[in-house]
Design brief:
Shape: elongated
Number of helices: 4
Largest sheet: 2 strands, antiparallel
Strand content: 15-25%
Oligomer: single chain
Radius of gyration: 24 Å
Mean pLDDT: 76
Number of strands: 6
Helix content: 25-40%
Low-confidence stretches: 108-113
Distance between the termini: 70 Å
Amino acid sequence: MSSLFYFLFWAGLIFLMMRFGCGAHVMGHKSKHKHSEDGPPVPSENTNNMVWVAPPRDIDPVCGTQVNTKTAKSSVYNGSVYYLCSRECREIFEVNPKEYLSSENLKIQAPETEAKHA
């Protein structure tokens, strides 16, 4: 009987620590953001929290086509997000991103269709 009380004591202590202690941060019980039902997190009263929103359209640095960022393949390089029209363009970009990030390659070209590689 004493082993049952021993087990219940430690199970209760672990539960309290996970629910109200350090584990609450990991489990998300003490979130500082209010979540709307269909959108991104809404920052609390603290104005230091910033939410980054992607632009609706961007230019693929590999082939120069305009892409819809919601459906584009993305790649992060040097702290910036780049949107690419296809998996193939993303693979080419990730091999040597410096080649495609020169100022002459990033000039906006005439709008083209998104299905250039299809």
